[in-house]
Design brief:
The complex is a heterodimer of chains A (about 375) and B (about 180). Chain A is of the alpha+beta class. In chain A, about 45% of the residues lie in helices and about 15% in strands. In chain A, helix 10 (about 260-275) packs across helix 11 (about 285-300) and helix 11 (about 285-300) runs antiparallel to helix 12 (about 305-315). Classes of the chains: A alpha+beta (about 375), B mainly alpha (about 180).
């Protein structure tokens, strides 16, 4: 099946509501598992990786959660498809680079994605919109328990689930929440927040996880320790910290409105100006400006505008998505250069935001931050 | 706080390094610190210390080093070597956890909240563990019954132990064939 026929349209993905989705984009829980007897993917030879794939893939495909899903070997996907999957946060950049033996199985609703022969034999994840860490854990735990009855999983009573990297051993769990924190960044409180979160044994990373920049004021908070604590303890702590960060973000926004409204309006107004009038724009600049536009929406400066329009632009202005759109609308097989993509991105933004009204900013007095869709 | 290397002396040297954007800490006593070359901060890599394999410098290591060097230098199952572990920071197969256990213990201590798994376990494993605990309990009861000359009770207990052993071997074959 063609990947793009399978994927949920971006406008629909962005309209899925979730708790605290003004700040929390998604919650994710990932489990790392390996089979006994076969060396980990980094050590296994091509034949062993292939053997693992033959054993594991049919089992995963028949799991109720993944039935009728998109199941494919990475080697059979085009570079563009792989990149699209990375930009949608469905597979890791590491998996996208692999060939022999690497595969993915994605559920119809895109909640579950299982990566085969990534760093570990199995990386199973559940992603849900908004703050739903516990729900994501319940979902992936159920899948994991079923998988365990079908496959001999490497486990020791001392070290727990055995993983290729000792940083994942034990529970093999990585819990993360993706947060949009423009308020803390503008108020220059982000460094402080990162330090505080780090002290609690949690990591703060950029948009695409490990070693990536925090583009568009999007940060990922995740656990680092996986051994010595139960899954629930890890989840509870992360959940508590995320709730605290949400509160800090809302406070930062409220304070900015109260103390520096002109500065805030200036930034949002300029973002609107550039996004609706530029003719060449990089992915990085677009993300940073879209973040401000989203903040403006959260604060109620664009009445009657659906925030999903901006959220969708976050995804569709990514390089592979631009390339794909160009290929589809113009039938161009030729790869676009980064410069050509920057031109195309600018025109896409102008077109998409054409009907978006100018921001309505009231400087007459402090405005309470709009509670939005928070429960 | 005890030295991370010898686990005997009080740690007086505290080393912090940024590794791949993450802060890693190591606490050592003076003697271990010297052996690891910590008095020359430019020549030390925390990765090496955390992996417990001594410094990467080309200088010969003192023979009396207390740095934990495990008995085996390569995994009998997959052939993974200490050098591989040092280079990649990854293990080769599940058996490597036994092979490199000694060095790993220290590495895990610095990375995690504890060194013993405290979470979910596979269902089959859970059952075996429960059965083993039950068996141990029954064995004690059996001993007591014999001592008290309650032979009828002893026979019943013995049958229960047998049944548990059967159930356990069933789980094991199930785990091996599934």
């Amino acid at each position: 099946m063609n990947l793009n026929d399978f994927l949920i349209p971006t406008q629909d993905i962005c309209r899925r509501p979730g708790p605290f989705d003004r700040v929390v984009l998604t919650s994710r829980v990932r489990l790392a598992r390996n089979l006994q007897e076969i060396p980990f993917p980094g050590k296994a030879n091509k034949q062993e990786r292939q053997q693992l794939l033959q054993t594991v893939k049919p089992v995963i495909e028949t799991m109720p959660a993944l039935k009728e899903g998109f199941s494919e070997e990475i080697a059979k996907l085009t570079d563009l498809d792989r990149q699209i999957l990375v930009e949608r946060h469905l597979i890791s950049r590491e998996l996208a680079k692999k060939n022999q033996g690497a595969a993915m199985v994605l559920s119809v609703d895109e909640t579950f994605c299982v990566m085969i022969n990534e760093e570990d034999h199995l990386r199973m994840q559940a992603i849900l919109p908004g703050l739903q860490i516990k729900e994501a854990w319940k979902a992936i735990d159920k899948l994991d328990t079923m998988v365990e009855t079908k496959l001999p999983i490497a486990f020791s009573s001392q070290f727990g689930y055995l993983t290729a990297c000792p940083t994942n051993v034990g529970t093999g769990i990585r819990v993360s929440a993706m947060l949009h924190l423009p308020g803390l960044v503008i108020a220059e409180h982000m460094q402080q927040t990162i330090t505080a979160v780090n002290k609690l044994g949690l990591a703060v990373r950029g948009l695409y996880g490990e070693g990536t920049e925090a583009l568009g004021n999007v940060f990922q908070i995740s656990n680092q320790m996986t051994l010595g604590e139960s899954e629930l303890e890890i989840i509870e702590r992360l959940n508590k910290v995320v709730i605290q960060v949400i509160e800090n973000e809302e406070n930062a926004r409220a304070k900015l409105l109260e103390n520096k409204p002109e500065m805030l309006f200036n930034q949002i107004g300029r973002a609107y100006g550039i996004l609706t009038n530029s003719h060449i724009i990089s992915s990085k600049e677009a993300k940073n400006l879209l973040s401000l536009l989203r903040l403006g929406l959260d604060l109620g400066y664009f009445p009657d505008v659906d925030p999903a329009i901006v959220d969708e632009l976050f995804i569709v202005t990514e390089p592979a998505h631009i390339q794909y759109e160009a290929k589809n609308t113009e039938g161009e097989a030729l790869k676009k250069t980064p410069e050509e993509r920057d031109i195309r991105r600018a025109s896409l933004l102008r077109e998409s935001l054409e009907k978006m009204p100018k921001p309505v900013m009231d400087t007459s007095g402090p405005k309470k931050s709009d509670p939005g869709r928070n429960p | 706080m005890l030295c991370n290397i010898c686990n005997e002396n009080e740690a007086t040297v505290h080393l912090t390094q940024m590794l791949e954007g993450e802060i890693k800490k190591m606490d050592m006593c003076e003697s271990c610190a010297q052996k690891q070359g910590v008095d020359d901060p430019s020549g030390i890599s925390l990765v090496d210390l955390l992996v417990g394999l001594g410094p990467t410098s080309t200088e010969p290591q003192p023979k009396t080093t207390t740095a934990p060097i495990t008995g085996l230098s390569s995994c009998p199952k997959c052939g993974y070597t200490q050098a591989d572990l040092k280079k990649t920071g990854r293990l080769g197969c599940s058996e490597c956890y036994t092979t490199f256990e000694e060095g790993l213990d220290q590495m895990l201590r610095s990375m995690h909240k504890g060194v013993r798994h405290n979470g979910k376990s596979p269902k089959g494993f859970r059952n075996t563990r429960e059965l083993k605990a039950k068996t141990r309990k029954l064995e004690k009861e059996l001993e007591k019954a014999i001592k008290d000359e309650r032979y009828e009770d002893a026979a019943i207990i013995r049958d229960s132990i047998k049944a548990l052993a059967n159930a356990m071997s069933e789980f094991e074959t199930e785990a091996a064939t599934s």
